[in-house]
Write a structure and sequence with these properties.
- With 206 residues, the chain is mainly α.
- Helix content is 58%, strand content 0%.
- The longest helix has 22 residues.
- The chain is globular, with a radius of gyration of 16 Å.
- The N and C termini lie far apart (39 Å).
- 34% of the residues are buried.
């Protein structure tokens, strides 16, 4: 993607408009997914603030965090709003959302950093090949940056089958995964970057 000095402000404006458009679609489809996405986006902003990366990396993480769950718009609303644990069949359907989101966002790949597509497709992958959908062994840093925020947000949010976990429990869980040195350092030194405020945790009471 060509980000020349002359057209970069225009591209940034288009990216912001695209994010808003997609977020509005999610808001109409499922408010809980929309609010979760906002939380991941906000945590990603916190993580970016303590990372020394360039503009393209920052843009990819910002856009990717806003679009990571976009594939859920293709799932039945009753499934997204189920009040309880999902069975194996339902979980299988939910696990299609990275691929579905990738196929949707791919239609706009000429206007987005290629890293955004990788984030959408791979945000549930984990180093060592224990994630899905493709059991990738080694994740790019931009994918890790969103994946760690996705875990942190999901754990702290109140869900139909459980109350949200505390930040301490969340941080302990993050340490159970294998991350790059950069992400590991952020988890160790900047725990507050992953903190959700109480009002942000209430994604169901809307």
């Amino acid at each position: 993607m060509d980000l020349s000095v002359s057209d970069q402000p225009m591209k940034e404006s288009l990216h912001l408009s695209f994010i808003r458009f997609c977020m509005e679609i999610m808001k109409v489809k499922d408010m809980a997914t929309f609010l979760h996405t906002l939380n991941v986006y906000h945590l990603a902003q916190n993580v970016l603030s303590v990372m020394d990366q360039g503009k393209i990396f920052k843009a990819a993480v910002e856009i990717g965090s806003a679009l990571h769950d976009f594939g859920k718009i293709a799932l039945p609303k009753a499934l997204l709003m189920k009040n309880g644990l999902l069975d194996n069949d339902e979980m299988g359907k939910v696990r299609t959302h990275p691929v579905v989101g990738y196929e949707i966002v791919k239609q706009f790949e000429k206007h987005l950093p290629t890293e955004v597509l990788e984030i959408v497709l791979c945000h549930h992958e984990r180093n060592g090949g224990i994630g899905y959908p493709n059991r990738i062994q080694n994740l790019p840093l931009h994918v890790e940056a969103v994946a760690v925020c996705d875990i942190a947000a999901a754990m702290q949010e109140h869900r139909p089958h459980r109350n949200g976990y505390t930040l301490d429990v969340c941080i302990n869980e993050l340490h159970q995964y294998v991350w790059s040195p950069q992400i590991t350092q952020i988890i160790r030194r900047h725990e507050d970057a992953f903190l959700l405020q109480e009002y942000e945790r209430e994604i169901l009471k809307v």
